[in-house]
Amino acid sequence: MKNTKTIRIALAGNPNSGKTTLFNAITGAHHHVGNWPGVTVEKKEGRTTFDGCEITVVDLPGTYSLTAYSIEEIVARRFIVHEKPDVVVHVIDSNNLERSLFLTTQLLQLGSRLVLALNMSDALHQSGARIDAEKLGALLGAPAVFTVGHKGEGIRDLLETVVKVARNEHPQVRQIRIPYGHEIEDHLGPLTEKAEALELFEVPHPPRWVAIKALEKDKEILQAIRDADRKGALFLEEIEETRKHLYSLYGEEPETVFTERLYGFVAGILKEIYAAPPLDRISRSDQIDAILTHKIFGLPVFFLMIWAVFQLTFEVGAAPMEWIDAFVSWLANFTAAHMSPGLIENLVVDGMISGVGAVLVFLPNIFILFMCISFLEDSGYMARAAFLTDRVMHLLGLHGKAFIPMLMGFGCNAPAIMATRTLESERDRILSILINPLMSCSARLPVYVLVTGAFFPPEHAGTVIFSLYFLGLVLAIAMGRLFSKTILPGEAAPFVMELPPYRLPTARGLLIHTWDRGKIFLRKMGGVILVGSVAIWALSAFPRDVPLSRDYDAEIGTLQTEALEWGDTGKIAEGFKKQIAELEAAREAERIEGSYIGRIGKAMEPVFRPLGFDWRNAVSLFTGFVAKEIVVSTLGVLYQVGAEADQKSEGLIQALRNSDMTPLAAYAFMAFVLIYTPCLGTVAVIRRETNSIKWTAFSVGYAVALAWVVAFVIAQGGRLLGLG
Ligand code: GDP
Ligand code: MG
Asked: Would strands 144-146 and 114-119 be described as parallel, antiparallel, or unpaired?
């Protein structure tokens, strides 16, 4: 008896079968999240102890099969072949047995030692359907256990079975071979022997699987065989001949025939072990779908839901937003009061606390939005949204699935870009990532509110701001079309729009999914924003000894002495205070003009002059790279009213009005803010998601160029039309 002390298991299964839920139930808090090497597919690893065994668990990407068509499939099967986990736990959505068992057959062919977790068995039993788990295990040579992931039911049973299988103590375990019929077997036999003898791979692969995959023209396997030089070439020839032979026999490609065989095998199993429910849940879903995906009502209902989501996000988010804002101000004041004034205090208060605080306030909005989206997703409605918007999205050379990330972009582009992971093809993903920043995120709204308030009458404010959102959409469609005709040619990859049955999401599931999304945001944004804020602060704080045109300190000193004589109440005292504040602001303005950031602004000014922007606007666009909220605080600093200025500040609005910026230039400025790169956080996410510096650079480069061109057209075109 082998008493294994450490066991390595991998969770495989279809997307949405509850893998991650089971993973969390098994590992609890003992896990960490990373990426699979070289690709942007998330990898979760964790561990637990059970019955004296140390069990490590890997959550494989969700897949429907194990071909080489998607990154997820390649990652999953590579892991199984190369890492040889002791046991593969196949997490099965018991309500989707046929599709799941199709994957089971392929896992068996890979030679994994399997345990089937018949998950979502609560819903199965509720529906009145029955699965004979005992018999299923016996037929497949792989034991099956019922589980309910989000309630943790069956986890003990599952782990017990896993340990038994790993120790070779389970009576049901045996290697079965899925028969392909003697015609095909006649060829598979010799090919399998050859595949074994050739030793094509450094890590041995199951030879029968290699033969099958080669006959299916699996690109990874074929490449490996080609790399094996002469012996590989001979093998390939034989494969090619067999393919021709099989084709003439069946009149279809071998891969089609093979898939049919597997489905036939699955159908046979189902007959033996599955009893359908009296009234299928699917049919209840059909009834709901009759309304929600209705030709005429579908879209209005959909827009109503989206409107409700945004409403909820901003209404419910408003209160906690104020609390956080109040907390940040309190923290800034508290810190300022308890540190000796000077450079360090300045760095902590103005650089770190205000900078990070500006982003922190959006946290409630973001978490609420994520929670709503998780709800729509877990309930099965998101799949319908993709279905409904498919036709519109084809205008952009994308399909309905790409709609959800675009929608999320109105909240925040960074998680929206992460959401493009649901798209299968690399091309669709990159196209979506490139146009996503044109969706006007919530961080740009403060800029619109401030500038519109300063340059446009209140009765037009709503229209002006709406026109900017609309401009973003139009540009997204135009750019989408342009890119799909030029640098990213091709049709949107065809995909089956599955409509999974509706299901009431569980609170636990919602929280886990919301947190999973939110914490990435927290971590990334926190780091980037902190560094960015400190950098901007440093650029505006140095050099310290800017030569000033007047001796402000002396003037302020004189005023203070005079003020003392008048006491500190009454009109005259007020007057002194105001004069002193004005002088301090003027000193600050002059100092900043001479600081590094002022010099950068002056250097950039010529580029922006045709757009009607001065050096201060230029600087704010520069600092706005870090985050769009920073545009507002930068304008605040540069237009002399102190860094705490926000869009409500009358002083800043007045200062903007007094500047020589025209309403036309102001509109061009807002368009610029809309179009160019939203924030450093987004750049970091684009880098991560495209896994390419080239695409990241292109995304930033084209956005800045487009912003300049559009702003130029607005400024100069408007001037020609006599608008400004
Ligand atoms: P994954 O894509 O395979 O990782 O699936 P998830 O773990 O993200 O689960 C998808 C959804 O199914 C979530 O809303 C879960 O809460 C839910 N879920 C998971 N296990 C069960 C279960 O046993 N029963 C029911 N009713 N829902 C479950
Ligand atoms: Mg998952």
From this structure: parallel
